[in-house]
Structure formats: C-alpha cells, structure tokens
From TrEMBL:
The lineage of its organism: Bacteria, Bacillati, Actinomycetota, Actinomycetes, Micromonosporales. Residues 1-25 are annotated as: Disordered. This is High affinity sulfate transporter 1. NCBIfam families: sulP. GO terms for cellular component: membrane. Gene3D superfamilies: STAS domain.
C-alpha cells in the first residue's frame, strides 16, 4: 500500500477522524487533546517524519527569509516557534506551518514601503516581527469571531492569476542571486531590466551560475521523478561539499556564513506610529493569503485522511503561530503544501512531528551553528525558484481558457496586477476582482423565457429548446438571482420588453424559485411595474415563490397592488389557471412548424 493510499484509508492505530470538534479547553487548545489521546505506537513515525521534515525546513526557512528581505537565521527562528505554537493551538493533525514563498514577496514589499531600499537589518527584523504580531492578532480575532468565510474573498480564478504573477515575480527577483550578483530595483519590470543589464555588463559569476543552475536542476528533477527523495537536502549537502572542495568563496560565490549560536531573547515588537498604517495594510493582505492558502491546503489533506476542516480554529492556530514567532525575531508564516506532503509521506501521525522538527532545528542552532556556513547563496536562490515554479498553475489557466473565458480574463487581470503593480496592490486587485465577479453575477444574472418541450418534463429555456411550444398570450420568464437593488432595473427592463412584444401577452408568469430574496428597492420597483403593466392590460403573475420571500412580499405591502390570486405554488398551477381563463392550448412558437 502506498503512503497516499495509507492516508486515504486509515489503518488500525491511526487517529480517529475528527468528525466532531472537541469541547471545553480542547476546543481552543487542541494540543491538550493530542496529549490526552496520544499513543506510544505513533512516536517512532512522528519522530522519523520530524527528522525528514527538518531537512526541508532548514534550507527553505533560510531561503524564504532572504526572499522576505531578512537575515537567513530569522527563518530558522520563525520555523521553531510557529511549529511549537501550532502544535498547541492548531486543529489539524498533519498541517505544517512555516516561512512561505507566497508570503515572502509580500513581507518584502511591506518592509520596503516602511524602510526604503537602504534598510538596516535590525530595523527590518523589528518591523517583520511586528507584522507577524499584527497578522497573528487579526487571525485570532477573526477565528474567535467565526469569520472563516473571509477565505472566500479570493476566488479560484483570481487566486490562480495572483499565484502565477507571484511565481514570475519571485523567479525574476531571484535570478540575479542565482547568477552571483545583485540588482537595485523595485517591481518586476525594474528587476528584469536590472538583471538583463547585469548580464550584459558581465557581472555574472560563472561559479555561482554553475552551482545555482545545477542545484535547481537537481531539485526540480528529483521533485518531478523521485518525489520521495529529499531533493532540497541533496542539493544543499552537495553544494556545501562542492564549496569546500573547490573553495568557491575565492571564485566570487557568496556563502551563508556561520549562524548565531542559540536563540534570540524574548522581545515584544515595537514600532513607531508612522509605520503602523503601512504595516496594518500589509497585515490584512498577508492574513488573507495565509488564511486562503491554509483553508485550501487543510481541505485537501483532510479529505484524504477523513478529517473535517475547522476553519475558525485554523485561523486561531495560524494566528497563534504568527504571534509566537513575532516574539523571537520571526516574521509572518503560512501553511506549506509541500512540507505537509513530506510529513504525510513520511508517516506523520500528529503535530508531534512539528515539535520534533522544531527541536531538531533548535539543537542545530545550539550545538552546530556553523554547519551551514559554507552553504552557497545561489543554492538558496535555487530553492526559492523551485518553490516559485510550484506556485504557478499554467494547466489551471489553460483550463479556464477552455471552460470559461470570463474567469480566464479575471485570472489574467490578477496576474497583471501582481506582475506590473507589485505584490500588495496585486492582492488588492485579486480581492476586488473576486468581489466584483460576485456582484457582476448578481447585477446581470441569467434570464430565460421558458416553453414546453416535447418529450421532456417541465418547462425549459427556449435557447436550449427552440422548438418548444407556448400558450398564446402567456410568457413564462425565469430570473436566476435574488431580486435586489443592483439588478431590479435589469429585471424591470426585461419584463417591459416582454410585455411589449408582438403579439402582446396577457400574463407574464415569473418562475421565482431561483429568486431567494427581494429587498425594499426591488419591492418598490415591482409595485410601479405592476401598476404600469395593469394599465396596459398585462398581469404580473408569480409561481414557485419561496415562503420567506412571500412573507417579505406581504410585509412590503405588495399584495395591495399585485393580485393575491396571482401567486401560485407551481408553474403548472399558473399555466392551468391561465388556460382556464383564456381557453387556449399549446401551440408551436410563431415562425416554428
């Protein structure tokens, strides 16, 4: 049985599915339940999975810290404390949190806006810690307030476009480091231009290119064809060996250098009020991306292991992880799909895996802080570029083109927003496009004139059944949305066109089953419309109206204008009533034989 199959069908000794959330203290501190229910038989697998996970946590943590514009060591501090906090407050048995490639550019953009390009590393760390604290508080408050639905503010098409733009931005931003030089530029265009000029001016370092490209190829090839082999670890170890044998530092290749020994002191993040608004705006965007990523990742893994996603508690867990990291020179974190997959494939049974990983990193910092001093900087760039390639979803974009051009356009707009305007404006554009797409569907919903099709029960759209029969003088009309202020004029104008068609109808029956709400603005327009149609000898009739909507109709007083007898339980009832009144039968549509 494969690991994937093992996860999909829990065997004896696996934790029971979380079908019901725990009560009492365990509801808000799931780690209590883990300790209470933990089985000794799980420890060997959790320990092995934690050690395997560490081989990914260390290089990725350092690489993503540099991606965020911070010293590499902060990535390790962040990994330790976010893993420990999520083990206590996180509801998922399998999710792995830590520095993330999708958040790195957002953090860098916030720091750049607050400090400028010539930032002092200590100041950058202080601001990043405050940013993590803000993100954590926002997520905890949102979780307690049960605002997990905020993850829906990023629709799948705009999320694909945003991630594609982010992948391109990360890749271009890391190319100079991969080639052994640096570029002063903000945004995709400036960085791409700076990289091209640097290559043309001969600033590249051949040894750096060789190490970086070979490391990138090794990571990508192993991830693609041998996913169970730790490609990142192999690339890191191989590059350190090469750096020592060939003394690449003398050939112009930058090295990570010795890391500080031990841990940073517990520090309460503080900033000046002038930086508060900049950080708060970035914190909202980072919290939204982190939440969306976590909910989607947890949903995917929960479906495979029989768990139930507890979105509000996930927000509390992520928030607690960010807060814990903020007190030890950390920066904002999110869920990692790749690291979670590694933990699952390695046999992880609980969050003890994350605790083992945190302990292993801590031991490395205390006992052997110089272990990574000969790690070449181009390898960190290769790790980030490999991660950026996994962010992009080209097949998903192509699928949108084939299936729904409007959503493809939204995806491309989000992509261009990130690529051309920057990461933070890009997330704002992505959210705005998602919300506008919802309103677009409410403003201009699908509408249909219905008829009776031969051999098919019920009444159907004439565009699908152009030969469907009709009753002379009767129009069956369906409006597929709640009737609200934003679309009631679209509804009114369509009813007017139907009322003035040739031949003129006597009844216009509205199939109201899709209309789940009517607000006061729509009620006023309906009153005016009914009076207008009555003056022209046309009756407005309603069928299949839901009870809550009918209650609102009566509360608004519409039945004083609209004939109460013109409300029918079903379309069939309305058709029978009209046939009895008009004495007509079904006939082919005009122009049809």
């Amino acid at each position: 049985m494969t690991n994937r199959e093992h996860a999909a069908a829990p065997a004896a000794g696996d934790p029971p599915p979380d079908d019901e959330p725990p009560g009492g203290v365990s509801r808000w501190i799931p780690g209590v339940q883990v300790v209470a229910n933990y089985r000794a038989a799980w420890l060997p697998r959790d320990a092995v999975a934690g050690i395997v996970l560490t081989t990914l946590l260390v290089p990725q943590g350092m690489a993503y810290a540099e991606l965020a514009g911070l010293p590499p060591i902060t990535g390790l501090y962040t990994s330790i404390f976010c893993l420990l906090a999520y083990a206590v407050f996180g509801p998922s048995r399998i999710l792995v949190l830590g520095p993330d490639s999708s958040l790195g550019p957002m953090i860098a953009a916030v720091l750049l806006a607050a400090l400028g390009s010539a930032a002092d590393p200590a100041q950058a760390v202080a601001l990043a810690s405050m940013l993590a604290l803000m993100v954590g508080v926002l997520l905890v408050v949102a979780g307690v307030a049960k605002l997990g639905f905020l993850a829906d503010l990023l629709s799948r098409p705009t999320q694909i476009g945003y991630m594609n733009g982010l992948a391109l931005t990360i890749l271009v931003g890391q190319l100079p480091k991969l080639f052994g030089f640096s570029v002063d530029g903000e945004g995709l265009i400036e960085e791409a231009t700076g990289f091209a000029k640097g290559v043309a001016a001969g600033e590249t370092v051949p040894a750096a290119i060789s190490i970086g490209l070979l490391g990138l190829v090794l990571i990508v090839v192993l991830q693609r064809w041998l996913p169970k082999v730790p490609g990142v670890l192999i690339a890191v170890v191989a590059s350190i060996v090469v750096a020592q044998i060939f003394n690449v530092a003398d050939r112009g290749v930058g090295l990570v250098g010795a890391l500080p020994q031990g841990f940073p002191p517990l520090t309460i993040p503080t900033i000046s009020w002038s930086d508060f608004s900049v950080l708060l705006g970035g914190a909202f965007g980072i919290a939204l991306v982190s939440l969306t990523d976590t909910i989607s990742t947890s949903s995917a893994f929960a479906a495979r292991s029989g768990q139930e996603v507890r979105g509000d508690q996930e927000m509390v867990g992520i928030g607690a992880a960010n807060i814990a990291a903020s007190f030890f020179q950390g920066f904002p974190v999110s869920t990692s799909g790749s690291r979670t997959a590694v933990a699952e494939q390695s046999g992880s049974r609980s969050q003890v895996t994350g605790v083992v990983g945190a302990a292993a990193i801590a031991l490395m910092l205390v006992l052997v802080p110089g272990m990574l001093r000969n790690l070449p900087q181009p390898i960190l760039a290769a790790v980030v570029i490999a991660a950026s390639m996994s962010l992009a979803d080209i097949p998903g974009t192509a699928r949108l083109w084939r299936q729904r051009r409007v959503e493809f356009s939204l995806s491309i707009a989000a992509f261009l927003g990130v690529a051309l305007l920057g990461v933070l404006p890009g997330i704002g554009i992505a959210v705005a496009l998602s919300v506008l797409n919802v309103f677009r569907r409410a403003w201009w919903p699908y509408q249909a004139v219905l008829g009776r099709a031969a051999g098919v029960a019920g009444y159907h759209d004439l565009r699908d059944y152009p030969d469907a029969e009709h009753l002379p003088g009767l129009v069956l009309f369906r409006f597929d949305a709640p009737l609200i202020f934003a679309n009631v004029r679209v509804f009114r104008d369509q009813i007017r066109r139907l009322a003035r068609s040739d031949p003129r109808p006597k009844w216009i029956v509205i199939a109201t089953e899709p209309i789940t709400d009517i607000d006061t603005t729509a009620a006023d327009v309906l009153t005016q419309l009914d009076e207008e149609l009555n003056a022209e000898g046309v009756s407005l009739v309603f069928a299949e109206m839901k009870t809550p909507v009918r209650t609102k109709i009566e509360r608004y007083g519409l039945t004083r204008t609209i004939n109460p007898e013109h409300f029918f339980h079903t379309i069939e009832d309305a058709v029978d009533a009209y046939r009895a009144e008009a004495g007509v039968d079904w006939t082919p549509r005009p122009g049809r034989r």
